[in-house]
Write a structure and sequence with these properties.
Blueprint lengths: L1 E6 L4 H10 L15 E4 L4 E6 L1 H9 L5 E5 H6 L4 E6 L5 E7 L11 E5 L2 H10 L4 E5 L6 H4 L5 E6 L3 H5 L3 E9 L1 E5 L1 H6 L1 H14 L5 E3 L1
Parallel strand pairs: 1-3, 1-4, 7-8, 7-9
Antiparallel strand pairs: 2-3, 4-11, 5-11, 5-12, 6-9, 6-10
The structure holds adenosine-5'-triphosphate and 1-O-pyrophosphono-5-O-phosphono-alpha-D-ribofuranose (PRP).
C-alpha cells in the first residue's frame, strides 16, 4: 500500500483533481465528512489529510511515502525528503509589502511582520538590510497599518487582502506552488511509487526532479 499525505484545506481540491486525472478513483473522498484517513484497498492507496507542515513530517518519518505541500512550507522547514514534482497548483508568491510611503531599501534596521521568518530573514539579508522579525500567526497585513512593524513578508495570491488594507507590494520574493515530496527509502523499496509519480507527472507535464534537504 502507498500512503500519501495531503495538505488539508486550500489545495486539497486541486490535489484530488490531479490524482483523478492521473486515473485514480478518488470517489471515496467525495463525501469525506470529518474523516482524516482514507483507505482504498482496491487501489492499494491510503490518504492522510493533515496540516501543511505535518505533511513534511509524515514523509520524513516514512509514515507517508509521498506528500503534497506548498513550497512556502518546504522553504521555511527544510527537511530530509525528496522533492519530486511541481504540481503547479496552490499558486501564489511571497512579497514584501507595506504602506505606500514606506521605503524598504533605506538600509535602516527594519521590523518585519511575517508567518515566514526564514524567507523574510534570507530575503533581507540578501539585500544587506538588517531586520527584526516579528512573528505573527495571521492577518499579517494589519501590522504596518497600525504601526507594529515597518512592512510585512507574506503570501500574495489575488492581492485583494493587500488592497483592502491599503498596502502595496514593493518586491516579489519568489513564486510559490504545491510540490510532490517523497520519502527516499520508500522510493527505493517500492517501485510502484515511481510509477505513481510518473502518472502524476504525465498530468502536470513537469520535468522538474530536484533534491531538497
Ligand atoms: N492565499 C493564500 N494564502 C495562503 N496559502 C496559499 C494561498 N494561495 C495558495 N496558497 C498555498 O496553499 C497552501 C495551503 O494553504 P492553507 O491555508 O490551506 O494551509 P496553511 O498554510 O496550513 O494555513 P492555515 O495555517 O491557515 O491552516 C499554502 O501552504 C500555500 O502553498
Ligand atoms: O492575495 P490574497 O488572495 O488576498 O491572499 C493572501 C492572503 O491569504 C493568506 O491569508 P489566509 O487567508 O490564509 O489567512 P491568515 O491571515 O489567517 O493567514 C495570506 O496570509 C494573505 O493574508
Amino acid at each position: 500500500m502507498i500512503t500519501i499525505a495531503l495538505t488539508k484545506g486550500r489545495i486539497e481540491k486541486d490535489t484530488v483533481k490531479i490524482l483523478a486525472e492521473a486515473g485514480f478513483d478518488m470517489g471515496f473522498m467525495a463525501d469525506k465528512g470529518r474523516n482524516l484517513i482514507f483507505i482504498d484497498e482496491a487501489q492499494d492507496l491510503r490518504f492522510l489529510l493533515v496540516k501543511a507542515l505535518d505533511v513534511a513530517t509524515y514523509v520524513e518519518h516514512g509514515i507517508a511515502d509521498l506528500g503534497v505541500v506548498g513550497s512556502d512550507v518546504l522553504y521555511e522547514h527544510p527537511g530530509s525528503y525528496l522533492e519530486m514534482l511541481d504540481l503547479n497548483i496552490g499558486l501564489c508568491k511571497f512579497s514584501v509589502a507595506s504602506i505606500p510611503s514606506y521605503n524598504p531599501y533605506d538600509h535602516k534596521r527594519k521590523k518585519i511582520a511575517t508567518k515566514y521568518p526564514k524567507i523574510a530573514t534570507d530575503f533581507f539579508n540578501s539585500k544587506d538590510e538588517d531586520v527584526e522579525i516579528v512573528s505573527i500567526q495571521g492577518s499579517v497585513e494589519i501590522a504596518p497599518v497600525i504601526g507594529l512593524t515597518d512592512a510585512i513578508v507574506d503570501i500574495v495570491e489575488t492581492g485583494n487582502t493587500l488592497v483592502a488594507n491599503g498596502l502595496v507590494v514593493f518586491e516579489d520574493i519568489v513564486r510559490v506552488s504545491s510540490r510532490l515530496i517523497a520519502n527516499s527509502a520508500s522510493i527505493k523499496k517500492n517501485p510502484e511509487i515511481m510509477t505513481l509519480i510518473d502518472r502524476l507527472q504525465a498530468v502536470v507535464g513537469n520535468e522538474e526532479v530536484a533534491f531538497n534537504g
